[in-house]
């Protein structure tokens, strides 16, 4: 990327809504929710992840791309054509919006993997591993080309600006999703640029995050051992890759993934019964380099889940609520009340304790 | 009386309206449809009554110097940040860093409170801040507390649930924390010890806990049926020799 961004030392806002019945909602509500927390952002980044938005292409990998130039686009398209059948290629629809200036080229592709490309040394590779490799290759080796999202029936919409402006710019009122997550950025240690806005996505994982990952260096080196390249100049990227590595690849249950990232303190492990003590000791030993240090609250989503997690000493806020089939997670209660004034239950998240909302069995999405 | 429909109002406009009216002599405010507006009551330096219907934003009553604020909903983070005088009553729960560096006035929360409640609270002569939470608290209750009075009641506590989180009174070097019920010793900070109440404590409880009970329609004697204890620091300068030895 170009090194022309100023460092602006200056919280963040996050908000997520999920219908556990898979009921799809228009993007207007999530825009209103994140907009209520305007003061938490500074206009240097906003973004949304939406699940269930491409029912006509739900088995295709939807690649949302950010290009810095026509040359980047041509290079990336040559790579995509070599590896995928491109069933549709189109600009991501946007509208002229005050406050959003100088957008890069924003393009999306609906892709199927060319079956012969999956055969590596006579063995059939996993399609998801293939997509992960493709994303890493583009981000790492095609200058000025970045994958904003690469999942099925989902997409990320992000950029530089206040989140409500980014939402209107991307015409999110025209999409329907059963999970929406959103982010308003106040970049602290890393530049505000289009690829560095949240959410960070890989396959159907998306992460929006308030805080900073002080352990970024060790997490990044750990992930590199498994072929993940961290190229987006933002600490949050590692969270998406850690979920992919631990849950998709290594089949660690989601609750334990969260507890590997924000593990119990040794003093608490010492007080557990024998079986628990052994399990958490093993988690801390095996996944030490994956542990996240520093202040954070984040919302991770996938096609079946929305997960909220706070750091172990609660240095960032998160409020959760339930109303009928809707689950809400946000930095402030008012951001939830703004779109659902009456709630069945409201509570504040505890340090290090994951909150996991799951799609009901049989929900048609 | 001034009644304001705060729906969709920007916090600066709302707070300016309140401040200007208070300076002009208005003493009763009712704010309807509040949702997320920050700094309500900040810089209001006289005894006015502000009733908030809805969830106020962060830093409610920050630097407040006199107003009586009643919230008929939950409240968010950093209530009473560096508050100097006044009363905040929340008919619901409250978030993290409640009463941060508070130096006077009272904050009464009906239900649970979050993490780091009363951090850096202090007192000077007759300026003694008071925080009472009717529910349970997160970790770091009274962290680095240098003065003032805190009470944690756990009225909604179910059997087996802890009253407070870990690191209770860590770094505390002044003031007093009253607990209704007991806490496990491992949750206490190294700088505090548990004591029984004396006559002076009884007077303090009657005065402030009595007022708290009046605010929420609770029976003082019933609340007192459970045994109380107090936490006080064992050293007023726990780090005094840190760089001297």
Describe the structure.
The complex is a heterodimer of chains A (365) and B (245). Chain A has helices at residues 28-36, 70-83, 127-141, 163-169, 216-224, 237-249, 254-261, 266-270, 274-286, 333-337, and strands at 13-19, 25-26, 46-51, 61-67, 84-91, 105-113, 119-120, 123-124, 145-149, 154-159, 176-177, 179-184, 200-202, 205-211, 296-301, 305-310, 319-323, 326-330, 345-348, 355-358. The two termini of chain A are 36 Å apart. Chain A is an alpha+beta fold. Chain A is globular. The mean pLDDT of chain A is 94. In chain A, 27% of the residues lie in helices and 28% in strands. In chain A, helix 1 (28-36) packs antiparallel against helix 4 (163-169) and helix 5 (216-224) crosses helix 6 (237-249). Chain A has ten helices and 20 strands. Chain A has a single domain (13-358), classed as Glutamine Phosphoribosylpyrophosphate, subunit 1, domain 1 (4-Layer Sandwich), CATH 3.60.20.10. Chain B has 245 residues and is an alpha/beta fold. Chain B has a domain at 93-233: Pectate Lyase C-like, CATH 2.160.20. In chain B, 14% of the residues lie in helices and 26% in strands. Chain B contains three helices and eleven strands; from the N terminus they run βαβββββββββααβ. Chain B has an eleven-stranded mixed β-sheet with strand order 1-2-3-4-5-6-7-8-9-11-10, with helices on both faces. In chain B, helix 1 links the parallel strand 1 and strand 2. The longest helix of chain B has 18 residues, at 199-216. Chain B starts with a strand and ends in a 12-residue tail after the last strand. The mean pLDDT of chain B is 95. The interface between A and B is medium-sized, with 19 and 21 residues. Chain B: Residues 13-184 form the Glutamate synthase alpha subunit C-terminal domain. Chain B: This is Glutamate synthase alpha subunit C-terminal domain-containing protein. Chain B: Pfam families: GXGXG.
